């Protein structure tokens, strides 16, 4: 099909369905599993994979030095995500020849061979509970070599959380750790755990070994790593870790931003739309400018709306929607995404846009006090010779000659501005209710700061919110907290 000969329109339902059901993520995950496992029967393998419902489950590695709070944070994450908590003792509790060989080394205080240890981890993660619920590996892997061997076996995390704290704080935590024991009369008293204190003699050695590996581990997982300071409350550490794992990594799948910009007159919608469009190559659409362009064409639709524009009357909603949906259906909008302003102006138009299946995935409300709006709008003017815009306070004209040429747009008069502000304030509560996930941005600040806020919310994927579910007790999740 030649797009230069006929207008190519992409049904909006295609992208909506793909995004709603995360089709691109699904295809990427299935392809990755096929390449790693190389099954003899790919079709049956994919059927089994889909039946397990293991697409999108959490796969988290929680790393950190001794006494950094890994155990507590891992338990909290598992409680929130319903993932399986995997610890080193839990892996060793497995059955089979591999587990017996590993225990033989552990009983003799020998280091378990890396290849054997990695196979044990793979054996544990291949069980049905980890496949269906996901997993949190606490303190695993220990080294870059382990991490690379795990990757060769197809075990790669979606998120890696690394806790860090000064050594003196970690050593103090080990020394001051207490356990509650029952005395003979049944009361509880706090005593030093003598066995733990004796074992703390090798804390410095363990810290040294960790520091020797931590830089290599950071390089290995640099694309999915979050470092969190552990010398703060457990609640703060958990909140930061949970916020990070809810931010899903961006796949190399197609992503087309569909952005709506709302705001009162003078809030900077035009400028922000231009900045977003230029940086991310989105199609910049202003509904008012689009109607003027159509009316200038020698088409039936242009002739139909021309009388409304000439008289200053509002173009009927059905005609506006027809023109707008035709523009949004073109190939450039479907492939690159779009940023729209000037429509919808009320809840009726918003409902019509939704019914047409042109649903935005990012909505921003630029908010500014009325006094600031009046200062911005009523003091601006245009040089009718150059077309340059000036403002009495923020961008004064360069000289008296230009000052004499300045003309104010009749729409910027105080009387008409007050009327426009009144109409906007009446409609905006219903529009905010229509888009409850919209981002509200203070527009009474430097335009670069506004753009940075918009940009940060534009490029990030929408977070995956985990509901609080009862945790499932798995092997390896019952050890005492402390690591």
UniProtKB/TrEMBL annotation:
GO MF annotation terms: ATP binding; nucleobase-containing compound kinase activity
Species for this entry: Paramormyrops kingsleyae
Annotated TM spans: none
Keywords: Kinase, Nucleotide-binding, Transferase
Lineage of producing organism: Eukaryota, Metazoa, Chordata, Craniata, Vertebrata
Family recorded in the similarity comment: Belongs to the adenylate kinase family.
Gene3D superfamilies (UniProt xref): cAMP-dependent protein kinase regulatory subunit, dimerization-anchoring domain (1.20.890.10), P-loop containing nucleotide triphosphate hydrolases (3.40.50.300)
Record's protein name: Adenylate kinase 8
Domain of life: Eukaryota
GO terms of biological process kind: nucleobase-containing compound metabolic process
């Amino acid at each position: 099909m030649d797009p230069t000969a006929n207008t190519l329109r992409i049904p909006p339902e295609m992208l909506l369905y793909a995004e709603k059901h995360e089709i691109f993520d699904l295809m990427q995950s299935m392809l990755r599993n096929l390449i790693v496992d190389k099954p003899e029967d790919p079709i049956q393998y994919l059927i089994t994979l889909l039946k397990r419902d293991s697409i999108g489950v959490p796969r988290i590695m929680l790393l950190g030095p001794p006494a950094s709070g890994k155990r507590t944070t891992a338990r909290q994450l598992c409680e929130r995500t319903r993932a399986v908590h995997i610890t080193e003792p839990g892996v060793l509790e497995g059955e089979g020849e591999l587990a017996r060989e590993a225990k033989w080394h552990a009983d003799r205080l020998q280091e378990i061979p890396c290849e054997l240890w990695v196979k044990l981890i793979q054996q544990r993660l291949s069980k049905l509970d980890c496949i269906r619920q996901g997993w949190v590996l606490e303190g695993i892997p220990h080294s870059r070599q382990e991490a690379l061997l795990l990757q060769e076996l197809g075990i790669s995390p979606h998120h890696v959380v690394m806790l860090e704290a000064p050594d003196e704080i970690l050593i103090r935590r080990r020394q001051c750790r207490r356990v509650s024991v029952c005395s003979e009369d049944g009361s509880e008293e706090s005593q030093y755990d003598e066995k733990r204190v004796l074992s703390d003699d090798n804390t410095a050695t363990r810290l040294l070994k960790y520091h020797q590996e931590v830089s290599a581990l950071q390089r290995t997982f640099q694309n999915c790593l979050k470092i969190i300071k552990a010398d703060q409350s457990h609640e703060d550490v958990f909140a930061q870790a949970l916020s990070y794992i809810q931010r899903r990594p961006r796949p190399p799948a197609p992503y087309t931003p569909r952005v709506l910009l709302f705001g009162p007159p003078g809030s900077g919608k035009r400028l922000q739309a231009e900045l977003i469009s230029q940086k991310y190559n989105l199609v910049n659409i202003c509904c008012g400018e689009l109607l003027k362009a159509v009316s200038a064409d020698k088409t039936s639709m242009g002739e139909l709306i021309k009388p409304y524009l000439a008289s200053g009357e509002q173009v009927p909603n059905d005609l506006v929607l027809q023109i707008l949906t035709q523009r949004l259906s073109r190939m450039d909008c479907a492939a690159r995404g779009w940023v729209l302003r000037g429509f919808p102006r009320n809840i009726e138009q918003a409902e019509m846009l939704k019914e047409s299946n042109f649903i935005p995935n990012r909505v921003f409300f630029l908010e500014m006090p009325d006094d600031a709006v009046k200062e911005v709008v009523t003091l601006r003017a245009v040089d009718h010779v150059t077309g340059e815009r000036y403002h009495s306070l923020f961008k004064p004209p360069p000289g008296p000659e230009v000052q004499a040429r300045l003309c104010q747009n009749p729409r910027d008069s105080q009387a008409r501005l007050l009327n426009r502000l009144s109409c906007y304030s009446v409609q905006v509560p219903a529009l905010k209710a229509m888009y409850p996930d919209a981002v509200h941005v203070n527009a009474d600040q430097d335009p670069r700061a506004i753009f940075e806020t918009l940009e940060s919310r534009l490029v990030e994927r929408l977070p995956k919110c985990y509901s609080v579910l009862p945790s499932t007790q798995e092997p390896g999740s019952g050890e005492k907290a402390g690591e």
